[in-house]
Amino acid sequence: MQDIKDFLKTTPNNPGVYQMFAKDGTVIYVGKAKNLKKRLSSYFNSQQKDLKTQALIKHVTSIDTTITRNENEALLLECNLIKKHKPRYNILLRDDKSYPYILITNEHPYPRIDFYRGVPKKNGLYFGPYPNSIAVRETIHLIQKVFQLRTCHDGFFSSRTRPCLQHQIGLCSGSCTGLISEEEYKQNVRHAILFLQGKNEEILRELTKQMEEASGHLQFELAATLRDQITKIREIRERQYVSGTHGDADIIGFYAAENIICIQLLIIRHGRILGSRSYFPSVPADSLQDEIIAAFITQHYLNQQVHEIPKEIILKSSIADRSLLMSTLSEHAHHHVTISHSVRGERNKWLEMATANAKQSVASLLSNKANSKERFVALQKLLNLEKLPSRIECFDISHTMGEATVASCVVFTSAGAAKSDYRRFNITDVTGGDDIGAMRQAILRRYKRLQANEEKLPSIVLIDGGMAQLHAAQSVLAELNITNILLVGVAKGVTRKAGLETLYIENNPPIHVDSDSLALHLIQQIRDEAHRFAITGHRQRRDKIRRTSTLEDIPGIGVKKRRELLRYFGGIQAINRASLDELAKVPGISLALAQKIFEAIHNVVV
Q1: Is there a single domain that holds both residue 408 and residue 530?
Q2: If you write DSSP's letter for every residue of 49-113 in order, what string do you get?
Q3: pTM over 0.70
Q4: pLDDT, tens only, 335-346
C-alpha cells in the first residue's frame, strides 16, 4: 500500500468518488463520499471494522480519487464506474437488460400498436416500462381484442388487397382494406391510449353513451359491438385494477436465504400492476440489507436503459443516503421522486405482495439449483469423470434446405444456463446443407477466440449429431492443440423420439441411457436449448435475407417501384415466380426494367 499518511494529507475535503485498486491494477471497490478525506481516513483508523471492510483493505494497494461539484454528481459517477469496472467488493446488479414498452405510432393515418425495447427513437407514444416482454405482449393482445388496432408494419399494410388472418379472428378492424373509416379508427386509438393511461372510467362513460345513441338510432349491430367492448373493459378492470387512487410507484421487495438474495420489483402505473421482475445481485459477504437496496436503487434507476423513474419508490424500511438518493433521482427524472417506507393500507399490501414474490423467486431458484446439481452429479457418474463438470457447452446447426445457416453455442453450469455466454455464428463459405462443415467452422471460431483471449474452456462439449459431427469437432480441437475437453456426440434415435438418444465418445462404445436418467435429462435440456437458440437465430437471418430482396440492388428500382411490385404480386415469392411478361404489366415498370428485374432474380441474361 502506498504511504497512507502522505496520501491522506493530500486528500481534499471535497465531495467525490474514490477507486481502490488491487496489486494487479484491477478496481476492486468504488465508493462515493461527501468528504473524501474523512471517508478514506475511516478505512485506516484504529476503530474495529466489519469483516467485509477488513477483507477489502487487505487487498488494496492504491487509491485514486475524483473530485465532483456535489454529492449528486458523485453518486452518478460512482454508478457509472461500478457499471464499467464491476468491482469485486461492490454490490453488483447483474441484470442490465432494458425494459420493454408499448408503442403507438403517430406517423400514419391508421396508427399501429407495437412492442418496443431500447432507447425511444421512433415518433409515437410510449407506455411502460413493463417488467418483461410477456406482460407487453399480453397487454397488446388485450388491446387488439377490445379496440382492434393493427400490429402490422406499414409495408405489409400498404400491400394488402384483402383482410389478413388477424381480422378474421377478431383482433384487427381491417383498416388496410377500408373496412373501418379513419375517424372511427382514430376513436379506437384514443380509447386504447386512455386504457393504457388507466382511464377506464372515462372510456366506459363514452362507450356507454355511444351504445345508447346507436340503440336509439336502431343501429343494433353497432350497439352490440360497443356492448361487447364495455364488457371486456370491465372484466380487465376487475382483474388488473388494484388502487382506489391512480397509483404510480415501484415497490421493492427483499428476501434472502442460503446466500441467495432476491430483490423483487413490482411495477404499478396508473393504479394497475404491470408485472414484477426478480433481480439476484452479486453481493459481497456481510453486506447489510439497506446497503444492498440502496445499491440496487442507484444502479437500477441511474442506468441509461431505464427511461422512466416513478414518482414514488416504496421500501419496507429506511435506507442510508435516502435524502441524497431522492435528490439525485429527482434531478435525473425531472420530477420529484419520493422514497417511502413504513407505509400503510394499500401501499403496504403492495409491499407484502412484492416480498412474497421475492420469497417465491428464491425458493424456485434454490429448487432449480438443487435439481441442476443432482443432474450434474448423475452426468459425472455416467461419463466416469473424476471431477464434477463445471461448464458444459453445446453446439447445434439450423438452416432451411441450406439457406441462412446458423450455428449456436449454449453454455450451462451447475447454476443453470449462462445466457450471457451464449454465442451464434453465421456460417459462410460452406456448401448449403453441409452440417459437418458448418459444425467444424463454428467450433473452430469459438475455441480459437477463447484461446486468443485466454478465456475459460468447458469441461464437456456436446455435439448435436453422430460420429461424423464428432470427428469434425475432434479434428478442430486437435488442430488447436486443445486436449482437456471431453467431446460427446448426441445422436437422436431412428424415430427422433426423446429418450432414445445415443451418446458417442471417442474410443468408447456407443452409450444408450435409460429414458428416466437424470444425466440424460440434463443432456436433453442443454441440447434442446441449443436447438432453440440456433433456430431462432436462423429464422432471424433468413427473414432478414428475404426482407432484403434482390430488388434493392437493381438500378432503377426505388421504394415506390418496390411497393408497386409488392402490391401487384402480393409478396416477394410471387415476384420470384413471375414471368417477364407478368413483370412488365406492373404499373410504372417498363419492359426494359422488367428485363433487369427478371435477370437479377433468376441470375440469367434474357
Answers
A1: yes
A2: --HHHHHHHHH--EEEEEE-SSHHHHHHHHHHHHHHH--TTS-B----PPPEEEEEE-SSSS-BE
A3: no
A4: 899 999 988 888
